Amino acid sequence: MYRYDEFDHAFVHQRVAQFRDQVARRLSGELSEDEFKPLRLMNGLYLQLHAYMLRVAIPYGTLSSRQMRCLAHIARRYDKGYGHITTRQNIQYNWIKLTEVPDLLADLAEVEMHAIQTSGNCIRNVTADHFAGAAADEIEDPRLWCEIIRQWSTLHPEFSFLPRKFKIAVSGAAKDRAALRVHDIGVQICRNDAGEIGFEVMVGGGQGRTPMIAKTIRKFLPKAELLSYLESILRVYNQLGRRDNMYKARIKILVHEMGADALAEMVEAEWRQVREGFVDLPEAEVARIERYFAPPPFDPAAGSDSGLDTARRADSEFDRWLEQNVDAHRQPGYAIATISLKSDGGVPGDIDAAQMEAVADLAERFSFDELRATHQQNLVLPHVRKGDLYELWQSLKAHGLAIANRGLISDIIACPGMDYCSLATARSIPVAQAISARFQDLARQKDIGDLRLNISGCINACGHHHVGHIGILGLEKKGVENYQITLGGRADGEAAIGAIVGPAFSAEDIVGAVETVVDTYLDLRETGEPFIDAYARLGREPFKERLYAAH
Amino acid sequence: MPLIKNGAIAEDAWQFPADDAPLPGQGPVAISLERWQREREVLQARRAPLGLLVKSDTQVEDFAADLAEFELIALDFPTFRDGRPYSAARLLRERHGYTGELRAVGDVSRDQFLFMHRCGFDAFQVSSGGALEGWLRAVSEISIWYQPTGDPRGALGTLRHRRAAAE
Amino acid sequence: MKLDIVSANRLTDGRVVYLTRDDGWSESIIDGRSAATKEESADLLADAERAVEAGIVVAPYLVSMADDGGAFAPLHFRERIRLFGPKHNRDGGQPAGRVA
Ligand code: SF4
Predict the structure, then answer these.
(1) In sequence order, what E strands does chain B have?
(2) A325-351 confidence digits (pLDDT tens)
(3) pTM for this predicted structure
(4) Is residue A405 part of a domain?
(5) Residues A417 and A540 in one domain
(6) Is the CB of A208 under 6 A from ligand 1?
(7) Cβ of C94 and A80 within 8 Å?
(8) The complex's ipTM?
(9) Is residue A24 domain-shared with residue A159, that is, in the same domain?
(10) A299 touches B at CB < 8 Å
(11) CB pair distance less than 8 Å for B137 and A243
(12) Share of chain A above pLDDT 90, in %
């Protein structure tokens, strides 16, 4: 993991002091709310329905145990004892007092964390494949480049007042687990024909009101030129992105209006000038950062007898968890364990302080002190020795965290919705809870198989409903919540935007409607055909027919 | 509206006549790009310093060829949210080698000073009162920058490089 | 019958508050000062704006209340959520439904 050096430390402390001064000026009346709002947003502080909400950055989703314990401390000391993992691998606290934010940020700074650029029209916290550095299908660990991007984008003087927010994701694996194609920029580590490693750069993806899939504007970018190229994209966007209408201000609209080829040409023209004398990425600096992402000291003997098969046979519950929540690791003898935060009846992504501490302990014991937050609102222990999996699972179980539903219908992505969010048009949490209750039976869930169900409480789509196999969007009609269903969305390498299936459903009917969609799939699927493939084959019609048959 | 230059309140010698107002008989004037293009000969014949007041939707390339004519470029922030002048400032300083006064005008307050300073602005027509003391504090709030820009204060890459060299 | 009250968030901690009869702010809607006419509503908002100037609250607005079987309750579900807190939040702030 990256560790701050004296400069990074000094920087975050200066930033805390700066914000402390801004809060003091607000409380003294020197700053009006209009003047203060952009300043607090630059520090991830929102005013929500019930209180201030603070979004803390977890850069590219990577956390140490010490950092996780600090997040638990913050939940207890400054909030009501819990936090919420977001679809951008960050954590949000819902009950924050403005007066306490400076102290909270100072506590975060002690563990090398901050809330910088988790909001506002700037380059947001960069996200990554949550299996980075562990995945068996990885070309190279993307976190080195994420950290380089994090540093480059932090308080970037030219790009802190962009037309709109700007999200970058990086993946180094064959399988896209980072939803690259729905980001403003998706960076895919790849190999060219000569076998060199570099980047494919995709631009203009996004969700929200006008969802779009990113287009590749450069097939291969040499590694050393990443920042000059990003700087060129951002400069073109900063100058030409629309500022007359906030709904048309994202770079996806620019790409859409001028065409990906035209944009690529402008970026390349800018880049030819920018790259000359662009000196901020000396090899020594890359090497310095890279050292922090060296693989942990794996035990080469871990591969031999793990005792795993015996435990599996002896405990079928463990076996189910293993099958559902554990993935192949690049290192023989190790595995990647996903901790589902989608408990039955719980709030997707919520985790309380005691659980945070438990998970921190487990990461220390079993995963070289490392944890990940995923954009699917779960946690990951990236480097678990296979021989330790059974013990890990037992400990997780004791904390209510051994839920074997990763990737199943109850592994729901849900934004906070109107239970917390002031922009919401409807609630999303109760819908998630009701769906997970309806599909409580794990055997039934397993039979349904791989299914991504995503819920957003408004068109901003923080709950990624556009890219859910089944997407649910909460809307309001005449003072009543109702819910629109989209089908066929996906966020992986074959990213697609879901299609609206028909008129929205009432809060009472939405769970039944989801069940109808699932039942239709079960009736029509071919042997072993996952939902998303069946949908691709069948299209929307059979689902639509069944859903609206009675109406 | 006070003008801040080099960390002090400065006398402003410049006049900014509206496009349809007559040019003052003497003294430095800053005009719009349209007026410059329209009245170039007249303006040059005045034999007084010339400045350009640039709207945020103007591309630097549109006047880059004439930069030698100007001693002042004032980039307008119609609202602090409009970040285009930051790019314009860096292009002027770093790409086109402009060394004259680069002034931020419009919606300019102390919480943007650092970004502006870093992009190459050296003069600030601030919209709020109590400016100087606040500005002096603001400009030293952050001393570490991750990005190299035209600002002569080095970026972190350089600092780390120096540290590595010293080790 | 329909009434208006004014709600806002308190500056220091962001909590939901209602403008009271004695021109203060309370977390309890019962203390809220109500307005039955357009003029009274405008007065309410004007008083609230003064509290904004004074740095006590932010973003005040009128909340419509309707007679809900004898008691007045906010008309819109958003306001009911603001009033009662997140509904899933059964045990006063813990995430609901931990599976032990
Ligand atoms: S999707 Fe809408 S309701 Fe949900 S968190 Fe985002 S802004 Fe709020």
Answers:
(1) 3-5, 8-10, 29-32, 50-54, 70-77, 101-106, 123-125
(2) 999 999 999 999 999 999 988 899 999
(3) 0.95
(4) no
(5) yes
(6) no
(7) yes
(8) 0.95
(9) no
(10) no
(11) no
(12) 94
